[in-house]
């Protein structure tokens, strides 16, 4: 008899993006941690064209990288990432609750906090310096998630002059065909 334990993951949709060129232990641990954050996991894998625009030269083609991520336990859907502007549409189309990105993408994802919760991965792998060793040894560090919260403007201007906050409803109406 097999006993199934209740799934302790929060019931929410999570999305993340990346090139996933060198899929090593650190990236596997990141993806494993992301899979624990929700019940529906969507991974956007950068296309070869987007990787080239980002200045990356993947060793494997998009189809190979996407197939590798598709096989990862816990990943439900793999989609092609074709550009930064795609993220807004993906958040709306897939009804995303949580966007998880690397800390280096912080400035490119801050504006999305009005559409869903945004968390940044911090502390992927660190180099351990050693004076007695000629080379550095990489050891995985525990992942730390930080949540970005938008700063509310502190101004005495009337509300009519304040910038409009982007919401799911406004974006859906703006992109409705």
From TrEMBL:
<dbReference type="InterPro" id="IPR004821">
    <property type="entry name" value="Cyt_trans-like"/>
</dbReference>
<dbReference type="InterPro" id="IPR014729">
    <property type="entry name" value="Rossmann-like_a/b/a_fold"/>
</dbReference>
<protein>
    <recommendedName>
        <fullName>Cytidyltransferase-like domain-containing protein</fullName>
    </recommendedName>
</protein>
<feature type="domain" description="Cytidyltransferase-like">
    <location>
        <begin position="15"/>
        <end position="102"/>
    </location>
</feature>
<dbReference type="InterPro" id="IPR050385">
    <property type="entry name" value="Archaeal_FAD_synthase"/>
</dbReference>
<dbReference type="Pfam" id="PF01467">
    <property type="entry name" value="CTP_transf_like"/>
</dbReference>
<keyword id="KW-0548">Nucleotidyltransferase</keyword>
<keyword id="KW-0808">Transferase</keyword>
């Amino acid at each position: 008899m097999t006993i199934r334990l209740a799934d302790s993951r929060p019931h929410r949709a999570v999305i993340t993006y990346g090139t996933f060129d060198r899929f090593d232990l650190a990236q596997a641990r990141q993806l494993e941690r992301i899979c624990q954050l929700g019940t529906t996991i969507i991974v956007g894998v950068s296309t070869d064209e987007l990787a080239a625009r980002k200045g990356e030269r993947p060793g494997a083609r998009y189809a190979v990288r996407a197939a590798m991520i598709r096989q990862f336990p816990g990943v439900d859907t793999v989609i092609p990432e074709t550009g930064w502007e795609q993220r807004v549409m993906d958040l709306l189309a897939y009804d995303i609750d949580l966007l998880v990105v690397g800390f280096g993408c912080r400035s490119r994802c801050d504006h999305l906090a009005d559409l869903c919760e945004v968390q940044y991965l911090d502390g992927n792998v660190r180099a351990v310096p050693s004076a007695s060793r000629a080379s550095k040894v990489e050891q995985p560090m525990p992942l730390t998630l930080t949540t970005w919260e938008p700063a509310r403007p502190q101004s005495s201007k009337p509300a009519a002059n304040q910038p409009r906050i982007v919401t799911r409803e406004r974006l859906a109406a703006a992109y409705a065909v």
